[in-house]
Amino acid sequence: MTKKHYQNTWRQEINDIVRGTCGGFLFGIPLIYTMEVWWIGSLAKPRLILIAIALMFIVVFLLNYTEGFRKRRNNWRVDEAAIDTVEAMAIGFVCSAFMLWLLQEITPETSLKETLGKVVFEGVPFTLGVALANQFLQESNQNNSISITHKGNGISKHKQNGLHGTLADLGATLIGAIVIGFNIAPTDEVPMLAAAISPPWLLALMAASLVISYAIVFQAGFSDQQKRRQQKGIFQRPLSETTISYLVSLLASAVMLLFFQKVTLADPWRMWLEHTLVLGLPATIGGAAGRLAI
What is the largest CA-CA distance in the chain? Predict the structure, then answer.
């Protein structure tokens, strides 16, 4: 019994971290493509960085004191809220550092001061996303019970229609990708990042897009995941749905880049590929958020 309880505790801890991480990506990804924040972080003095961390701690502590990013905890405990705040900030900073490293905005050649400044200032929305993940994106227990109760009869009439379910997911992916990507596509950040990223990093960008999208929809517990796994449709399996949704997000990214004249029909295919993959990361996360909404 003790061993089983220990395993369940670690499983719950991992689930909480995954949920918080995915919440951080949902909230933080738009700001990661903002060069002004890179500049502010790179020029920030140590005193300003410490002030930013202190203010962030206060805000996240208040969020964790009222709700928190964990599904199980004793509310109104100052010590637990403080521990959750430190963990949420750590997750936010790790997510921020990972994205900046993936986009080659921080490298081994980047000075420690510049790296810390960029990670802290870019980490603000990521940390807020971690703290708000369970409050705004939590799973509905009522929906779970309904789903389990009616498992034999089918989840709902429109989900029984495989084509309808597939089109609904693709449409939600397209809408979510456009909502997030449309704000980023016309900016200069996309060509700047595309010019700095080498082909191996583009593969890493693709892998990160797929893994984050999969985790948000099927692992983080933001929606009724059991119901999503039971959906019947052409591509209604976790891996195939994630892959097809990524391709839809890439297509939406290419169209948005063409619409804003960031690429033209006369440009070489490699330029199209680089720009599309760079914009495809936030678009894919937006597409995953869109699928959560249906």
Answer: 66
